[in-house]
C-alpha cells in the first residue's frame, strides 16, 4: 500500500485594497508570528518582493507584487 504525502502547497491571499500594499515581511510576521530569515527586494518594480523562512519544519516563502 502506498502512503502519499504533500510536498508543496500554495495559498493565495487577497487583502482588501488599501493605499499602501503590505510588504512580504509584514505578511510573514502577521501569519507566522516570527521574523523571516531572508528578504529580497527586487530592483524591478514588476518583479515580486520575497521573504523566506522556516517555521516548525516548513519552508515558507511570502511574495508580494
What is the helix tally?
A: 1
Q: Poorly predicted ranges (pLDDT <50, ≥5 residues)?
A: none
Q: Can you write the helix and strand succession as a string?
A: HEEE
Strand order of the largest sheet: 1-2-3
Distance between the termini: 43 Å
Largest sheet: 3 strands, antiparallel
For the residues shown, what is the average pLDDT?
83
Number of strands: 3
Question: What does this entry look like structurally?
Answer:
The protein is 14% helix and 26% strand. It is α+β, with helices and mostly antiparallel strands and 65 residues long. It starts with 23 loop residues before the first helix and ends with a strand. Strands 1-2-3 form a three-stranded antiparallel β-sheet, covered by helices on one side. It has one helix at 24-32, and strands at residues 38-40, 49-55, 58-64. The protein contains one helix and three strands; from the N terminus they run H-E-E-E. Strand 2 and strand 3 (58-64) form a beta hairpin. The model has no long low-confidence stretch (mean pLDDT 83). It is elongated and about 50 Å long.
Short description, anyone?
This protein is of the alpha+beta class and about 60 residues long. Helices cover about 15% and strands about 25% of the residues. The longest helix is centred in the middle third of the chain and has 9 residues, at about 25-30.
Amino acid at each position: 500500500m502506498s502512503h502519499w504525502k504533500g510536498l508543496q502547497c500554495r495559498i493565495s491571499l487577497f487583502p482588501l485594497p488599501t493605499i499602501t500594499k503590505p510588504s512580504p515581511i509584514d505578511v510573514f510576521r502577521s501569519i507566522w508570528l516570527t521574523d523571516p530569515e531572508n528578504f529580497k527586494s527586487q530592483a524591478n518594480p514588476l518583479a515580486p518582493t520575497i521573504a523566506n523562512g522556516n517555521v516548525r519544519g516548513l519552508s515558507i516563502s511570502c511574495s508580494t507584487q
